[in-house]
Amino acid sequence: MRGQINVDVLVVGSGAAGLSAAVTAALGGASVLVAEKESVIGGTSAWSGGWLWIPRNPLAREEGIEEEPGSPLTYLRHEMDGEPADARLLAYLQYGPEMIDFFPPPHRRAVSFRQQNARFSRFTGRCAGRPLGHGAAF
Questions:
Q1: Could you tell me if 65 and 14 lie in one domain?
Q2: FRET label pair with 20: which of 12, 27, 35, 63, CA 20 to 30 Å apart?
């Protein structure tokens, strides 16, 4: 493509984060361009079938699945061999559910989430086999 395109927001990548950012900007009135290097959209989200691991998300709560606030961090520490949680991980656990809530009706037409809470952990050990209760899929 040649020439110049003027937009308010340029999003690089079409994964879950990029497309969520693009929709958010567009809903706010910005002109948006999503640039993707691959011939298909989805980014690394496509590897998971669009499934997002968002503990304590509102879709799980709507299904009656409630978790203790510390459960997701316990699970992650187990999977990370006891490594301490850094600020990014804590922010993910705190703000992930808010991200799902950010797209309530009627905006769920633009970013559609559906509950995926019947899954079980694929991992073995102390935290294995219980319902995860935090799935959301695009």
A1: no
A2: 63
CA distances in angstroms from 100 to 67, 73, 114, 136, listed in the order given: 16, 19, 10, 8
Token code pair at residue 74: 């316990």
Q: Domain range holding 21? A: 1-47
**Residue 43: HSE in the Cβ half-sphere, 13 Å Cα cutoff:** 17
The Cα 7–Cα 15 span in angstroms is 20
Running along the chain, 138 residues long, what does each successive block of 10 average in pLDDT?
90 92 92 94 81 84 85 85 85 90 64 56 52 53
Total structural domains within the chain: 2
State the Cα–Cα distance between residues 24 and 18, nearest whole angstrom. 10
Q: Quote the pTM value.
A: 0.65
Residues 104 and 129 in one domain: yes
